[in-house]
């Protein structure tokens, strides 16, 4: 900042700036006066509800009184360009702005809407005072991931608090934080975090390049940024991970990943990711390794069951009945007597009801939502069997599918699994077991073709690496993971 004291054409530009700001009713333009012998007039411009009044009252106003004393002893002609008013302030919280500079003007508007105070002095001098006090909530337990033994603090919407939660857990000079401003209208602050020596330099440079290339009007949340930064913009599966917990973010940074914090979003996105990383839970770090290994194995089975079981069962019960044991076949045949719908139509109806109840449980308040999901599922399921709309066997398959999907922590991949499940079911309903295998193989090939920031989405299976396979699927004991490398 700084520069000459009086700017050419500055007064006209300041008047134009004040006119633009006065069009918004939540922008306060307050005329003030300081000094006794020769009063100095100035104006304070700030955004309603975003400024700390104590900072203005206890610090800014006394500073303006001291400036008025110095100002009253000099005339306009006596003030040479080398005399900068900024130097008369006793704090670096007050900086001078060039009203004729487009870049400084752009930053000035962003600062005002972030809670800072603009000081207009003598119609052509602009100063910015840092008195931001934006409304924000304190860190509390994240609603994205359940914490049993882990920390209870979670990310909030303020980027400074989120960075403090991460820095407080990782007090290392190797932790680097680089800011970007994205969006011409929103001017959203974004922080790129990485650990030098842990993260791949190529990965860091790729993330920087993708952030710098963004040319958008506004950025509202981290999910928008996740889609913009992904290798495939229309990928069916999430190519970046997210979390609402600082401890899991620190774990990811220590494992060589990058983290991106978006101002206004209570979640942090991380890259690269893979299918085996997505099924991991932040709580895994706080539980015994043998239990975590079992849970991860069950989650992986849950993904497969949730995607494939409905299509597999429909293909067997409707087309390839010769593959069923005779006792099971007789049970299925008896349960389907008198039903008006085909097996595939039954399954589609059951899955539709399941998705409907799950959506209702998510949108309703937590206590009511859980009641609707459980009680509604029991009542509707029993009523459907009594009404002859579905068979008990089909209801059991749909219930197992629903329970299997609940093992996934990442809700984005939960939606992806639901779409793949319906596609495999559709192929199985038309082509039987052949359609089931075609759908499953196509899904596997598609997963192998995905990349997250240049890394294979199916790593360490594709490309196969036995050395990385065991720690990728299971969890090592802490005494092996804590060794310094």
Please describe what this structure looks like.
- Residues 1-9 and 79-83 have low confidence and may be disordered.
- The chain folds into three domains: 10-129, no CATH class; 159-273, no CATH class; 285-471, no CATH class.
- Helix content is 48%, strand content 13%.
- A hairpin with a 3-residue loop joins β4 (117-121) and β5 (125-129).
- The protein has helices spanning 10-22, 53-72, 102-112, 159-167, 201-212, 222-229, 246-254, 275-278, 289-318, 326-335, 343-363, 366-386, 392-405, 411-431, 433-449, 466-473, 478-481; strands at residues 27-34, 40-47, 94-97, 117-121, 125-129, 175-182, 188-195, 241-243, 258-262, 268-271, 451-452, 455-456.
- It is of the alpha+beta class and 485 residues long.
- The longest helix has 30 residues, at 289-318.
- α11 packs antiparallel against α12 (366-386) and α11 (343-363) crosses α13 (392-405).
Q: Any key phrases for this structure?
A:
5-stranded antiparallel beta sheet; 48% helix; 17 helices; elongated; 12 strands; 485 residues; 3 domains; alpha+beta
Summarize the structure in short.
This protein has helices spanning 10-22, 53-72, 102-112, 159-167, 201-212, 222-229, 246-254, 275-278, 289-318, 326-335, 343-363, 366-386, 392-405, 411-431, 433-449, 466-473, 478-481, and strands at 27-34, 40-47, 94-97, 117-121, 125-129, 175-182, 188-195, 241-243, 258-262, 268-271, 451-452, 455-456. By secondary structure, it is an alpha+beta fold. It has three domains: 10-129, no CATH class; 159-273, no CATH class; 285-471, no CATH class.
């Amino acid at each position: 900042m700084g520069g000459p004291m009086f700017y050419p054409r500055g007064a006209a530009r300041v008047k134009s700036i004040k006119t633009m700001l006065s069009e918004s009713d939540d922008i306060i333009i307050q005329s003030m006066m300081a000094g006794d012998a020769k009063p100095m007039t100035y104006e304070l411009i700030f955004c309603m509800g975003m400024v700390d009044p104590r900072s203005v009252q206890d610090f800014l106003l006394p500073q303006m009184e001291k400036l008025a004393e110095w100002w009253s002893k000099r005339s306009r002609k006596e003030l040479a360009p080398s005399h900068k008013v900024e130097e008369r302030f006793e704090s670096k919280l007050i900086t001078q702005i060039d009203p004729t500079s487009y870049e400084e003007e752009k930053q000035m508007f962003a600062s005002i809407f972030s809670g800072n105070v603009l000081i207009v002095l003598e119609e052509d001098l602009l100063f910015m005072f840092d008195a931001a006090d934006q409304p924000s909530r304190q860190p509390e337990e994240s609603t994205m991931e359940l914490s049993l033994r882990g920390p209870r603090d979670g990310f909030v919407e303020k980027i400074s608090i989120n960075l403090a939660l991460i820095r407080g857990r990782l007090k290392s000079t190797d932790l680097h934080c680089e800011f970007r401003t994205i969006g011409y209208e929103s001017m959203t602050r974004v922080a790129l975090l990485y650990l030098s020596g842990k993260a791949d330099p190529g990965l860091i440079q790729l993330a920087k390049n993708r952030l710098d290339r963004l040319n958008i009007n506004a950025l509202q949340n981290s999910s928008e940024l996740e889609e913009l930064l992904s290798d495939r913009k229309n990928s069916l599966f999430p190519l970046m991970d997210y979390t609402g917990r600082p401890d899991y973010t620190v774990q990811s940074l220590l494992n060589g990943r990058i983290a991106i914090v978006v101002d206004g979003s209570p979640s942090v996105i991380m890259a690269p990711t893979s299918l085996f990383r997505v099924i991991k839970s932040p709580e895994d770090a706080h539980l015994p390794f043998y239990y975590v290994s079992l849970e991860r194995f069950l989650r992986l089975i849950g993904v497969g069951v949730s995607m494939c079981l409905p299509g597999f069962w429909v293909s067997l019960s409707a087309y390839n009945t010769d593959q069923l044991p005779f006792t099971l076949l007789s049970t299925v045949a008896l349960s389907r007597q008198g039903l008006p719908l085909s097996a595939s139509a039954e399954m589609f109806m059951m899955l539709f009801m399941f998705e409907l109840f799950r959506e209702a449980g998510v949108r309703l308040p937590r206590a009511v939502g859980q009641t609707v999901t459980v009680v509604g599922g029991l009542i509707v399921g029993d009523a459907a069997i009594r009404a002859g709309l579905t068979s008990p066997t089909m209801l059991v398959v749909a219930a197992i599918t629903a329970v299997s999907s609940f093992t996934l922590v990442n809700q984005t991949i939960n939606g992806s699994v639901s779409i793949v499940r319906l596609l495999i079911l559709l192929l199985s309903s038309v082509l039987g077991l052949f359609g089931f295998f075609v759908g499953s193989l196509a899904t596997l090939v598609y997963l192998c073709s995905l990349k997250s920031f240049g890394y294979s989405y199916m790593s360490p299976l594709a490309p196969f690496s036995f050395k990385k396979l065991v720690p990728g699927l299971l969890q090592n004991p802490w005494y092996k993971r804590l060794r310094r490398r």
